[in-house]
Design a protein that fits this description.
This is YafY family protein. InterPro entries: CBASS_pafABC_assoc_protein (IPR051534), DeoR_HTH (IPR001034), HTH_11 (IPR013196), PafC-like (IPR028349), WH-like_DNA-bd_sf (IPR036388), WH_DNA-bd_sf (IPR036390), WYL_dom (IPR026881). Residues 4-69 form the HTH deoR-type domain. Keywords: Transcription, Transcription regulation. This protein has 4 domains: 3-63, Arc Repressor Mutant, subunit A (Orthogonal Bundle), CATH 1.10.10.10; 71-129, no CATH class; 142-235, SH3 type barrels; 239-320, Alpha-Beta Plaits, CATH 3.30.70. Helices cover 42% and strands 25% of the residues. The chain has helices at residues 3-15, 23-30, 34-46, 76-90, 100-108, 117-129, 142-154, 226-235, 249-255, 280-290, 300-321; strands spanning 51-54, 60-63, 156-163, 169-182, 185-192, 197-202, 206-215, 239-245, 262-267, 270-277, 294-298. It has a 5-stranded antiparallel beta sheet. A hairpin with a 2-residue loop joins strand 4 and strand 5. Helix 1 (3-15) packs across helix 3, helix 4 (76-90) packs across helix 5 and helix 4 (76-90) runs parallel beside helix 6 (117-129).
Length: 322
Amino acid sequence: MSDVTQRTLALLALLQTGRAFSGDELAGRLDVNPRTLRRDVDRLRGYGYPVETQPGPGGYYRLSAGSAMPPLLLEDAEAIATLLGLALLASTGMASEGSIGDAATRAYGKVDQYLPKRLRARAAAVRASVEAGQVHAPSTGVDTMSALADAIHRRHVVTFDYVGASGSTTERRVEPHRQIHHSLRWYLLAWDVDKHDWRVFRTDRITDLQERSQEFAPRPLPADTGVDYLRQGLRKPRQRVVLTIDAPAIAVADALRYQDVELVPLAADRTRAVLRVDSWQWLLLNLAFLDADFTVDEPDAFRTALRRFGARLGGQETDQAG
């Protein structure tokens, strides 16, 4: 491919992320001047891609919602990543009829026909060589997520029945803003019209979803991102713990793979971990599988409890030896 073609494909790939980019940012990423960028944008428009432009301060370039990149423009690595992503998605949840896992399972077997001919044999080889262990998680319906996406795009209020953690069902009327994936769960971040506050709902617990014609004005999110707000809520009943662990960050990440943890490598074999946990017993159980020395930097109560537990174990060993 010529340099112009490669650059145009690179521009299209950036715009396909759905983000709005400033002219300076796009020019910097593509290593071109503003005039060349404008020509490339015009070239994309000539190919039928609706690129929106907002001039002036705060201006941006953005691909209009609903436009799609033809499959043949996928780079080799992107096509294989798509195949692997479908495999992982298919292995998460119960793959019940109409669920995202079910759709991913069916798409996994069809994607070859949308790939360039040169990649079909490699895709078949990847499929034959990959196994993904089933991860049990609640299944979320494709129809539910699609309906929420439409409502968010059109800024329409939705109503639904929601099954809470206690098993009781309530009727909700909300302004939907974000769909969030976190720790094998899908969530909806929305403004609850009746409670006059932000709420997070497990998408798999939503039933009888109805999009209303009533429109709403988007509200500023209650945190920098929807994920940040969700994490704040999940962390509230838990205790913040800071550890220094004599192990590489990759080993610590594996031991705490299902936790929302921040890791800072201090050295090749030393890592600081910041997380929130329910109890020191839970923390000890998980760190025991890591088999590495560690120090509890905070809180003091956890450090004291662990020292007492260690002393009890030491006393038992002494009694048995005697």
